[in-house]
Every structure is written in structure tokens, then in C-alpha cells.
DNA sequence: TAGCTTGTTCGACGTTTCACGAACATCGAA
DNA sequence: TTCGATGTTCGTGAAACGTCGAACAAGCTA
């Protein structure tokens, strides 16, 4: 569809990342991707219109939290676990732990599909 | 002036905290308070109008990041280091480290004053 | 009491964010 | 080539945010 931009590791900004994580749906997406496995866009389930979901995924991507790969007409998303660890040691773990305790982002899930995300 | 509200430790919300940390000035304030010492409101220096500074300090307070104590006509602010560690283990350190590396919030400083913040 | 200091609140302004449905672009399949 | 599936983009509101100056409230100090 288009060639999206992903910031370099060194360009990932703290405040932008914090802003990206200030929305429950986006935290939910991060949780769902936290195991590092690649997920198909279409597998992601959130209680919002698809244009809104596209918006949230864009915010995460622009912030440098996720990476989007295109394959034909569909997209696959991954959390940039390695990059995040490098840029913000300890942050991801802290956020995931807190999100877990506070049940943030439970509205988001993945509809596991047979031929999706070949890990 | 008024009786401000501070959330309990258990009420501090991840997404609200992340939102509070998504502004450079607020991150700067957190940095300046990071040593745990109490600071006088008037000591805080930031390149914004005092009403704006008041707003930022309120956001931090409402999010549960800081505590404000009043003494006569002046206020003293502290970072809730202990509470934050309890609620979000590892988060504060990660944020401070990243802020340090990225020079976030350098616009904020403290004008050390003689009789201020008796640690 | 009058006045000063300190910080909050208010109202206004422009920007950004989140949400939606509709339209669009692209690719694979029929 | 036509059709369907998949996401993005656009246009539009409503709400939230960051900022300011002005007005205010509360407590010292003279």
C-alpha cells in the first residue's frame, strides 16, 4: 500500500514512547505482541473500528515500538523487543508487569489463525 | 490554598503515569526531583508561565508521581519515589536513565535557595 | 488594615488526539 | 479483467492538551 517509516533505534524518543503507551488499547496491543512473535494485522482484535485500529498501530509504529512488514495485501506486526531493550533497558518489562497487574488492555486480543505469523 | 488530592499507591494508573511522562517539561521536573529531596515550588525553573508550571505540577500530582505539601503560603514538592517503586518496579529507573541519555527535560532546573527544602 | 508574595483557577486560543464511516489503493483470486 | 479482501487515508466531530495572561485566594508582613 505504501512505504511506512520506522524510526531508527537511536531516534526513538522517550516522551513519544510514553505518549504511545498512555492509551489502554495501545498497551493492549503491546501486551499481545510482547512474546516477540509476529502477528497478522487481521488477527488483532480490539473494540474499535478498523480505521481506529490502524491509527493506533500507526502511533505505535511511528513511536518505534512496533515494526510493520507487508506481504502482498496483508501486514504483519512485531514488537521491537530487541530495539526497545537496547534503547530503554528495563522499561518494557516494567510496563508489561504493571499492565498485567492492572489489567490494562484486556480489550485487545489475538484471533489465532492457522497459517498466521510463522514464528 | 486548597486541599489537593493525591491518589493512593494502589490507585496510580499505568496509562495515566505514561501520559504524565509524555511531556518534556514534566520529565524534567521528575528528573529534578529524582534524588528524593523536597523542593520548593518557587525553586523550580522552567521556560513556561507560572500558570503553565502549575498545570504541569498538577498533572504530575494527579497521576500520583509527586506529592505536594503546603506550608503557609508556599508549597513543597517531592517525587513519590517509594510509592512508584512499589507500584512500578523498575519504571522510574528506566525513565530516568533514558531521560538522561536523551537529554529530556534539560529546560527544567532548580534554583537552589538557602532556606529551601530542608532535607 | 493594607499590601505583598505565592500559587491556583479561569477563560481563551490553537493544536493534537481519538473515534467513526466512507472512499481509496493494492494485491490475489476467480 | 473483474471481484473480493486488506489496510490506509480522508473528512469530520468531540474531547483533551499546552499555553498564556488575568483574576483570585490565602497567608505573611508592615
UniProtKB/TrEMBL annotation, chains A, B:
SUPFAM superfamilies: Winged helix' DNA-binding domain (SSF46785). It comes from the Bacteria. It comes from Nonomuraea fuscirosea. GO terms for molecular function: DNA binding; DNA-binding transcription factor activity. CDD domains: HTH_ARSR. Keywords: DNA-binding, Transcription, Transcription regulation. The keyword Plastid does not apply. The keyword Isomerase does not apply. This is ArsR family transcriptional regulator. The lineage of its organism: Bacteria, Bacillati, Actinomycetota, Actinomycetes, Streptosporangiales. InterPro entries: ArsR-like_HTH, HTH_ArsR_DNA-bd_dom, HTH_MetalResp_TranReg, WH-like_DNA-bd_sf, WH_DNA-bd_sf. Residues 6-103 form the HTH arsR-type domain.
